Amino acid sequence: MSYLVLARKWRPRSFDTLIGQDHVVRALTHALSSGRLHHAWLFTGTRGVGKTTLSRILAKSLNCAQGVTATPCGHCQACTEIDAGRYVDYIELDAASNRGVDEMTQLLEQAVYAPSSGRFKVYMIDEVHMLTGHAFNAMLKTLEEPPEHVKFILATTDPQKIPVTVLSRCLQFNLKQMTVPAIVDHLRDILAQESVPADPQGLRLIAQAAAGSMRDALSLTDQAISFSAGDLTAAAVGEMLGTLDQRHLLDLLRALAAADTPGILAVADDLAARGLSFQSALGDLALLLSRVAIAQRLGHAQADDPLAEDITTLAGALSPDDVQLFYAVAVHSRQELALAPDEQAGFVMACLRMLALLPEGRVPPVSMGSPPIARPSDAPAMAAPAVVETAAPVTSTAVAPASRPPAEAAAPHAEPPAWESTPDDPPATGPVSPETARATEAPMLSAAEPPRRQNAPPRPPVPTPEPDPAPDRDPIPDPDPAPPAPPDEAAAASDDWTDAVPADLADAFDVAASLDDLGMDPGAAGAIAGLAAEPPAARPETPDPGRMTAQAWPGVAAGLPVGGAARALALNSEWLSGDDHQIRLRVAIHTYADGGGHDRLRTVLSEYFGRVVRLEVEYGETGGDTAHAVDQAERGRRQQAAEQAAEQDELVRTLAQRFAARVVPGSVRPPAL
């Protein structure tokens, strides 16, 4: 005898052996027991959840030799022939291949005849949504008022494509997808009767891959038995399915928790070497993060979880906000992975985005081996470069002018003293202007001198040196050069002068000194130093959701970098309240928050406010404090102004008076923004 696959061998043959559809079984059992039988039923649900199985059990219940019953015997002629698929009064029609009006007309012509041997003639139309519009119209009358001996059972995976005129004539039952525990328990019972050893973790992998379909689970089990030679271990099932080893996910989460970028890259390289799907990796990572979040709320991992110990450790290493952030990034990045130039690059960027969106201070700073360009926020922390005493004289190109103390900087028309010149100095090729001399002077400080104070005195801007005069002219020396102040006196003058400098200005001077030391252009250095000198109120700050008002929200919503459903939600929402952890909005239409708009807007708002926030959307009447309402009001105002300007135009008024002309309504358009 040929081998019978598990999906056919273990197909349920009675209501009590059906798995996972208790709500449908209860309704049909009560109807059969009470005799309240409808003439048409519609079973909807995804593939492999029991639509055809339910129709066969219902047909046996209607035609069993014991009478109409919820517990068919399974031994009479009707029961055995229906199970074997050869009962003459049970007709299964595939609408995918018999979808025309001619096939439907032929079926309905045969329906008027009485059943050959059974009590009822049962027509089961599978994938009924594939019928054409004319075929649906042809069956409407018979479906509404069929003969007493005819029962219709319709099955479909897409009820949205069925006309409402057909839906209104049927009792509709929505079959649920199978849960992972239900599939695992059913597979364990079947394999125990088949005498096939199975690892619980391997069965769990099969149940997850089946995605709610019991038939898919049984087909995968058949394949796993052949692949593993009758020993269903977790390793063999994982290798057959090509699924990601949980060890890789645990290593990845540990690297994310420790902000270990080399560890993240190592996991990505390992996945690429094994040829695993990065899209599946992001999906499995999201599932693992959900288990971590559940463990954080419960205080412990679920008892039946094979990774309970590792999940408990990760739940303690990650904060709940980090878990939610990582989950949101993983889900959205999985959808955007198709847009990446390379799947591995998209996966790595998704992981680095998780670290980049963490609150400031949670991730160690990135070091590239070179000093960063000074910013206003970093100015107080930057120290001036040290000046080391040397025996050689300091020339005009050796030391930046920013290292001069204010005592010497304030000396007008100061020429370098004669005692600083040495025979090694290059001969002068022309006269040196007083401005150039002031810009090139620098004191010789001892290496043992204490470092400059944090609030250092300002450095005067470096003027552009004038071009040297003609070489045939001799320089005119200063008749009374000012000697340089001794180091101690200069330092004392610097300290006294610094005490009188405001803190904000001193921070700006530190920025200028650091930029001068880096060799930046004097004009650019002055612009950055001016930005640092601005008062704190003028500097850009991270927005605070607690200070956001309903009047300011439309402008913020219109400028958010989102599109599609998320932009529609932002433009049509009204600000209710906000704090460091939660933002509340109100919209007037439910569909604005459907789909992926809610999650995408929450991610963008977290980036805008610089913290992880939860987004709560309420439904109710909105006023004029939405970006859409503000935009419409502005358009109306501009339209009214344009119409008034057209009416007051001299040419328009002249044409109206002389030729009885009139402005066509709606033809006036305001200028584009």
Task: Compute the CA-based radius of gyration.
Answer: 41 Å
Extended strand count: 8
Mean pLDDT: 76
- Quickly count the helices: 27
Low-confidence segments, given as residue ranges, are 367-460, 469-479, 484-521, 523-534
CATH architecture of the largest domain: 3-Layer(aba) Sandwich
> How far is the N terminus from the C terminus?
80 Å
Q: Give the overall form.
A: flat
Kindly describe this structure:
This protein has 673 residues and is α/β, with parallel strands linked by helices. 46% of the residues lie in helices and 7% in strands. It has 27 helices and eight strands. The protein has helices spanning 6-9, 22-34, 51-63, 77-84, 101-111, 133-144, 164-167, 180-194, 200-210, 214-227, 234-241, 246-257, 261-274, 278-298, 308-317, 320-336, 343-356, 406-409, 434-440, 487-499, 503-517, 522-532, 553-558, 564-571, 597-609, 627-648, 650-659; strands at 40-44, 90-94, 121-126, 150-156, 171-174, 574-578, 582-587, 614-619. The protein has a five-stranded parallel sheet, covered by helices on one side. Strands 6-7-8 form a three-stranded mixed sheet, with helices on one face. Strand 6 (574-578) and strand 7 form a beta hairpin. The longest helix is centred in the C-terminal third of the chain and has 22 residues, at 627-648. The protein is flat and about 95 Å long. Mean pLDDT is 76; it is low at 367-460, 469-479, 484-521 and 523-534.
